[in-house]
Amino acid sequence: MNLASYADLAVDLVNTRRPDGDDLHDLDGLRALLAHRPHLAGRVAHRDLDAMRELRAQLHAIFAAAARGDDDDAVDRLNTMLIHHPVHPQLARHDGPDWHLHFNQAGSVPDRYAARAAMGLAAKIAAQGPDRLGVCRADGCERVFIDTTANRTRRYCSERCAGRPSVTAASHREPSRVIVPMRDGGQ
Fold first, then answer.
1. Ordered domains of the chain (ranges, CATH)
2. Which N-terminal residues, if any, form the signal peptide (predicted)?
3. Which of 104, 110, 116, 123 could be disulfide-bonded to 51 (CB atoms 3.0-4.6 Å)?
């Protein structure tokens, strides 16, 4: 089991909120988020939707603290999540003869999601540091990401947002003047 891979759960959940909408506006949105995660499948109700929105806010606060360089706050928030959503690993053997770790399937969907996302972020921070967690720096974008660059230089959630600052800067420049030479010394 690659615990750090569960960090993507945190990114996916936080990024359900965008300036132009909220993918968790109803239960169908929550079901869509969970659709490709059979290990998190289960019946969901409105209380689960509310819990996932609260979890999204908590995870965003962790990314925001890390992005502003407040490692202690990010880790304190994450440790609080780990205490509130403990993980219960167990050994399993199903795709071959080798034993491997799985997380227990007990608890509500939001609790299982929170436990896995928190463990994933904890594993990522333990291996690479909190400065790998980021919030997009494009104006109006609050999407989060995990910086996987070798030199820790990622600043935007996507290529689209990375291009926005240069487009914005170019649109505010004074228009360039083109000087056309006159022919025959005319005026």
1. 3-128 (1.10.3300.10)
2. none
3. 110
Q: Whose structure tokens read 């059979």?
A: 38
Residues belonging to the chain: 187
Closest CA to 114 of 170, 52, 23: 52
DSSP the chain: --GGGGHHHHHHHHTTEETTEETTSSHHHHHHHHTT-GGG-----HHHHHHHHHHHHHHHHHHHHHHTT-HHHHHHHHHHHHHHS---EEEE--SSS--EEEE---S-HHHHHHHHHHHHHHHHHHHH-GGGEEE--STT---EEE---TTS---SSSHHHHHHHHHHHHHHSPPPP-PPPPSTT--
Contact 120, 54 (CB under 8 A): no
Reported confidence tier of residue 1, pLDDT bands at 50, 70, 90? low
pTM above 0.70, yes or no: yes
Q: Quick one: CA torsion of 138, 37, 30, 158, rounded to 10 degrees?
A: 10
